[in-house]
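[Backbone geometry]
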Amino acid sequence: MAISFGYEFIVMKPPIESVFAGTVVPWCSGCGKEEIITAISIIGAVIMPHNFYLHSALVKGGIYLGCQFGLVAMLVWGIGILAAGQSSTMTGTYTGQFVMEGFIKISWPKWKRVLVTRAVAITPTLILCISANGIKNLTGMNDFLNCVQMVQLPFAIIPMITFTSSEKIMHNFKNSKGLKAFALISSVITIGINVYFIIQTVSEHLGTEWYIWIAITPITIPYVLFVAYLSVYCLVECNILSDTMVSQQVEVFEKQIFMLGNSWI
């Protein structure tokens, strides 16, 4: 990948001054919504939600190597993981292993896990590539799929903040107040930007007619409710909301739902 990017850099010859200036102060003169969506899609393709959990597991591997074989082995491990991090195939497979074994207690052989995960990912991709009418359609679909990944972000980032802020789980290693504030603020900004562009993308591709919004409502409501559920318990672990108050409100809500159900019957 380094050779490929280096070759493209030499051939395209971008202005060096602008490259360094954009690295320090990101800006895009004359850019519209399409260019911003492309930029966010690039970020979404590199900083994937599943990598949050992979990184926490890989840190333990690096510490083990450092203790067993010395500093050199740990550094070699880190460089190797940094290179492999450019490949979503490897990181996705490793993340699937840690999530399946750690969260849902499923231990599969590596060949079976790789076969299933790759088949699920590659088969639809091959079908789309074969049926696509030109590279332009594939490019647009690739950008759209990168934007779709933003929908998954709350399911990864909110539990991550919840777990790392929980004293029951992390004990003395829980997030500090400053880190909690930074994580929450950056998460709200990121998720807010994602929601804005999701709405814009849906409006452009499907339209804004009333029946379109009615059609997507059954999908949107459960999504919003589940994100709200994750957010409430995240705020509880961050000591922003009281656990007792949340429990009382949940009981009141359950009673109202029960009474509403009885009235319908």
About this structure: The two ends are 63 Å apart (CA to CA). Residues 52 and 101 are 16 Å apart (CA to CA). Residues 150-265 form one domain. DSSP finds 13 helices and no strands in the chain.
